[in-house]
Design goal:
Length: 227
Amino acid sequence: MTLSGPGASGPKLAGRKYSGIAPEERVRQRRAAILESALEQFGTSGYAFASIKQICRGAGVTERYFYESFPNKEVCLAALYDTLSEAMRAATAAALSQAGPDLDALTAAGLRAFIRYLTDDPRRARVVLIEVVGVSPDMEQRRHRVLRDFVDTVLATWAAKSTRALARSERLTATALVGGVNHLLVDWLMDGRRDDPADLVAVCVDLFAATRAQWDTAAASSPYPSD
């Protein structure tokens, strides 16, 4: 997996080409190699136990090139998390765009893409779900922003297929559902049995469908408009 993402081009440097490669491209390549190595180190040994020296050894660069792109290990973790999160969002969005028009098909496609992106490479799951937790206030803000983005995706999908306005309380429901999926994946990662990801998808699809059915029933029987 070649890692690239927001801000992946690195610092802009002036200079001549080396072996036909411009300086800016060499910086980008080194940064991508460092992020690949960081995925391996953070996703196996863990963030706390991974050193910059180990990351550089895995990337095949000296430490000076680490500091060319990142001032410290936490900024490297943040860049890796942003890259993985963006790829996860893109995979989910692509699945939604190609899914059937009904809500059940959309739900299944989105959840399948989200879950498979993480379970296909447990290193991604470990970084996204575990290693970023509690590192710093900045990382917590990043983590919660990603979760909120997925809540927004759920709400947008619901709204597009609903014949009524969504109640404000449905955001709380969507937040609880996204949190539940997140914790289910944490449990999958920490449990040595590693259930089949298809079973995780099926459970989540059923949970989303049951929740929506309950909301629709309540809305249909209520004499009041959605608040």
